[in-house]
Amino acid sequence: MPVTIKDVAKRVGLSSSTVSRAINKSGYVSEETQRLVDKAVMELDYRPNWMARGLKGKPSHFIGLIIPDISNLYYTAIARSVSNELQRYNYHLILCLNEESKEIDLNYLKMLSEKRVDGILYVHPANGNNSKFVRYLANDGFPIVELNRQRESDILDAVIADNFQGAYQMTHYLISKGNCRIGLIMGETDLTTGKNRLAGYQKALEDARIPIDKDLISIGSFTRSHGEKGINELLQLIDPPTAIFAGSNRILMGVLYVLGQKGLHIPNDISIVAFNDAEWLSTWNPPITVVDIATDEMARVAVEILVRRITSPEKEHKPITYQLSTLLIERKSCKQLSKPKLAE
Q: pLDDT value at position 25?
């Protein structure tokens, strides 16, 4: 039998109405009462029935979007596209920035669920995870769709980019330009984004029969600081790379800063490419070749799926992963070298 509010009330020796106020944050309770109720909820594994709540009350017409930050122009673009798509369905956006922090992320998940938003579009943090709470919500029918990063593939729908194919395509492009020493500066590989981009890079080298040199791979975080660290390390190699593949536009910013400090010119001194397009990359001197992810399409599909789950909660469904293709945009940041001598 599922645990009810009455069971929680019996455990703490309080009335059901008091327990309901504590659980729903809908009225005053003392700090001690709140602590006792929270403890009993965890011990009894009490789960509110989100679907039943939705049937009893009117939809809020609010959707939560949890992303890492907005200083990353990629996520700025996603937030703008999601907001535009939600307006088409008469939903309003609540934007939450988890700053790649497990603790901040959990606070937002709890806040959004307590405020009874109609659903959540979710980019989980790079540092730690809140899988237990996310799955707790999903198992009770709370609509959640993973965006860009995927962790709960067995229970949640997801809309992600084909990061493997994008990285493969870009690495193959650099090889076609005559590069056999291609430096890769990549973010966290415990994220699906980093993991799949690394795999695509490695597979392209293998298919071209170019040995994988671990010294040419710098794994860290999807940040400008890691871009600076990675390029500095690669340039200090006895046999440095002829081309750099930056795993994101934030990493690219660090790479470009260091190259400018060292007086190195693109593409004459070194070829540069990156993942994730941004408006400034087309106006940089020279314009940077990129693998582009269609953020408008990602937002459109994710919102459509989430609205479908919200409006048809009674329908059982198996989680689906929607993988969007990427596009290589060739600009002026790579030069043609002699063809590499491939292994026999």
A: 63
pTM of the model: 0.80
Of 22, 35, 24, the C-alpha closest to 115 is 24
pLDDT at 344: 41
Asked whether the CA dihedral 35, 39, 40, 46 is positive or negative, the reply is: positive
117/329 Cα distance (integer angstroms): 38
DSSP, res 210: P
What would the two tokens of residue 342 be?
């491939």
Element (DSSP H or E) covering residue 146:
strand 144-147
The whole-angstrom separation of Cα 310 and Cα 159 is: 17
Instruction: Please report the pLDDT score of residue 26 as a whole number.
Output: 60
Structure token digits, residue 207: 């298919």
Find the helix or strand (DSSP H, E) in which 184 lies. strand 182-186
For each of the domains in the chain, give its residue range(s) and CATH number, in order of start. Answer: 1-46 (1.10.260.40), 56-161+297-325 (3.40.50.2300), 163-293 (3.40.50.2300)
- The answer to whether 34 and 12 have CB atoms below 8 angstroms apart is no
